[in-house]
Amino acid sequence: MVIRKILTILIGTLLSYSVLAVGFMNESLDVILFMLMITYPFIFLYGLPVTILSDKITKDSLGVKRVIKAFLFHVLFGMGFVFVLSFFFDPHELFFNFKEYWSSEGELLFFAATLTSFFFWLVDEGIRCFQRKYCYSYE
């Protein structure tokens, strides 16, 4: 399971950064690679436990119910990532000047974190389907 999760983080992060890079075509490749290097350790430290916890919480569910629960879990924690990151690195702006924080970097971080969590979920479900030779049943 841990190998699947590490692969999920590697592939999911690369997919999300590829999509974000297309959205920021006016930025140089150096800037995008720098962003990846800076944020990747935080994504790994936050994403790995979240995706493992998602498996633990949804293990009793089957079929489509498990897939939907896993999706919601991944996306909600992805949305929360921006607040956790800001709590540690910019708590003053987060708590006392939220409107300014949100309009400067918060909105972009929120979008990027949510997109990354979606790709985590998508890649994890894809690897799970590949390993089991089937995706899910309608139970």
Give the SSE layout.
Blueprint: H1 2-23, H2 29-58, H3 63-89, H4 91-96, H5 98-132
Task: Write structural notes for this entry.
By secondary structure, this protein is mainly α. It has one domain. The protein is built from five helices and no strands. The protein starts with a helix and ends in a 7-residue tail after the last helix. The model has no long low-confidence stretch (mean pLDDT 82). The chain crosses the membrane at residues 31-49, 70-89, 101-123. Keywords: Membrane, Transmembrane, Transmembrane helix.
Rg, nearest Å: 16 Å
Summarize model confidence as the mean pLDDT. 82
The largest sheet, given as strand count, sense and whether it forms a barrel, is: none
- Roughly what percent helix? over 70%
Total of helices: 5
**Alpha-carbon distance between the two ends:** 23 Å
What sort of overall outline do the alpha carbons produce when their principal axes are compared? globular
Q: Order of SSEs, N→C?
A: HHHHH
- The total strand number stands at 0
Give the helix/strand class. mainly alpha
How much of the sequence is in beta strands? Answer: under 5%
Low-confidence runs of at least 5 consecutive residues: none
What count of domains describes the coordinates?
Answer: 1
Compact description:
This protein has 139 residues and is mainly alpha-helical.
Give descriptors for this structure.
139 residues, globular
